[in-house]
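Final report, closing paragraph on structural work. Over the funding period we assembled a curated collection of sequence-structure pairs, and we close with a single example.
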Amino acid sequence: MTKKVILDVDTGVDDALGILLAVGSGEMEVLGITTVNGNVSLDQATLNTCKVLQLLGMEQQIPVIKGANKPLLRTTYFEHRVHGKDGLGGALSDMQVHMYAAEGHAVDFIIEQVKQHTGEVTLIMTAPLTNLAMAVMKYPDLVHHVSEVVVMGGVVQGFGNVTPTAEYNMYVDPEAAKIVLHAGFPAITLVGLDVTRKALLTEEHIRSLGDTPIGRYVKESTADYMQRYQERNGVRACALHDPLAVGVALNKELVTTRHYYVDVETRSELCDGQTVCDFQNRLAKPANVHVCMEVSAEAFLDQFIRALRA
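Its predicted structure, as stored:
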């Protein structure tokens, strides 16, 4: 049985790796990939997504649908330092693209697909949550038709990666994140930096992919990403933030989760985008998020490498 999923991406280096995992696993029916402003502009994220699908030979099977071109209330905040100007670290720069985005808007696509396959669709969100927040605002009953939502975002026990307290996806559109977390989805799993920082892709892992189109792509796209990670953290590797969210959607046993009340700060000079997790139930509010606390990193990396070699 394959799992029906929609991937929502702002395709930078690690979103692309997440797409490779989702398709390569053979365990997901990707109904479509929706794009959003985030690491790069909406147009660049869409182009990058098309390139990755073309690399996989899946351009005829999986539609790409453009969504929001800016956060709900805020100005754009790109992450070119990490992902490069093009979002893919310069990889696939000479590819002749013959795939185009499908007609329509990501918000409508999400609503239509979830209604058509009620109770079956997992939404895997590896970008700012603008598209899903807009879908909830347009069709509040969406929450009753989704199987689950897996969000790459936030950090509850550590430090941020764009400010001292905020993870990037939450920081870019905290208002959208707040809407999603409080919308009433029956199951939201938060795959945050607490676990993604433990899922590190090394040069040894990349060598194990072999001299293949996928292996060469991964090596080229992650080269600068690894360099930045080494400068910041002293380890030559790159964290598989977005692929781990896909991995969790594939296999919940990769992580240990706890059910907590989680909110997002939207009105702080220092802490905008911080995910605030009520570990001790100080606020006496019902739990709304399954928060990933631990990860079996080796098992995930084995899964990741197997899928990309397939």
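DSSP finds twelve helices and twelve strands in the chain. The chain has a mean pLDDT of 96. We thank the funder for supporting this effort.
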